[in-house]
Amino acid sequence: MTTIPVMKPWLGEEEAAAAAEAVRSGWVAQGPRVARFEQAFAAHAGTGHGVATSSCTTALQLGLLLLGIGPGDDVVVPSLSFIATANVVRHVGATPVFADVDPQTANLTAKTVEAVVTPATRAVIAVHQAGMPADTDELRTLCTGRGLAVLEDAACAAGSTYRDAPVGAAAELAAWSFHPRKLLTTGEGGMLTLTDPDLADRARRLREHGMNISAATRHTTRQPVLESYLETGWNMRMTDIQAAIGLIQLAKLDTMVTRRRELAAGYRQRLADLPGLYAVTDPPHGQTNYQSFWIRLPDDFPMSRNELLAFLAERGISARRGIMATHLEPAYRGHPHGDLTVTEALTAQTLILPLFHTMTEAEQDHVAAALREAAQGGATR
């Protein structure tokens, strides 16, 4: 039996040719293709500046460093997120404070953030979970009134929209992922987008060891250059090979979003007759790219979420558990937190269904039929 994957990157000969061209050019480290990718991605995202990084994790860490977050500071984050969202707060020496989320969008709200703000709170990381746009206007209104910064974790959200503009267009700082599970992939890699040119300049220094002139500029000049290191930095660079792939992927992004939205509509139509099952859909304030299509099982579903994952696997369907709850992971055992009722319900009752650009109607029919069989108690199991 051929397994239907949960995700498959849309990569082809164009990406292979672009990567090969970068290799043949002799410039494979961070260089001119990275600069072009930064400019093109920032333009597509509707913001001023892009700073390419080695991952979304390092982009988030860079954002916190630019905000001056460090030891003694609290940063509000959703527990319902990939663990990197909380880890980066620890990476800069600050403390993550977990807030609950909205049951329909799986995102932070002003109400859930306000419930956990402390005197030490300096910032909020607002995740656009699985590509679902968070209501960032509402969050900014709350945070501005309390002197808190907002860093948007848009890891999954390339191609999503918020109030008729690209997600992150109005963000002072937004971090993006190009991991293979995302629509736009460079293998690994990330981006920090910014509105402030001075912050963008500093971000470029920090991602390259704090150096006052980039390696690309140093190597292309005809005169000797004695660089200096203005502050302690890191190696957070993207390669030109990755950027070459990213430029091709970016040109395909709008087509990918359109296709994934068609597939999501197909799932909702196929699953509409399953009583009590919730299938993710757009919020009133925007449109999701459906980086992941997740469903929430009703309380009376005849098998647990984990049993259902095994049931689907037996039928050649590769699904995944829903979004993780970081506060339940061993790395955060004993970490204090408040009420996370919605988070714990979502992480226990949700799963992610296969969704990828080349998915066929027959594959969607097979997934829907298996879910319907499971809802009837797995009669033919």
List strands and helices in order, with pairings:
Blueprint lengths: L12 H13 L6 H14 L3 E5 L2 H11 L7 E5 L5 H8 L3 E5 L10 H5 L6 E7 L8 H10 L3 E5 L7 E2 L2 E2 L6 E5 L12 E5 L2 H10 L8 H6 L19 H32 L6 E2 L6 E2 L5 E4 L8 H10 L5 E2 L19 H9 E4 L7 H15 L6
Parallel strand pairs: 2-3, 2-4, 4-5, 5-8
Antiparallel strand pairs: 1-9, 6-7, 6-11, 8-9, 10-12, 12-14, 13-14
CATH domain class name of the largest domain: Alpha Beta
User: Based on the structure given, which CATH architecture of the largest domain is correct?
Assistant: 3-Layer(aba) Sandwich
- Helix/strand/pairing class, anyone? alpha/beta
For the sheet with most strands, the description reads:
7 strands, mixed
Active site: 182
Pfam families: DegT_DnrJ_EryC1 (PF01041)
Modified residues (N6-(pyridoxal phosphate)lysine): 182
Organism: Frankia nepalensis
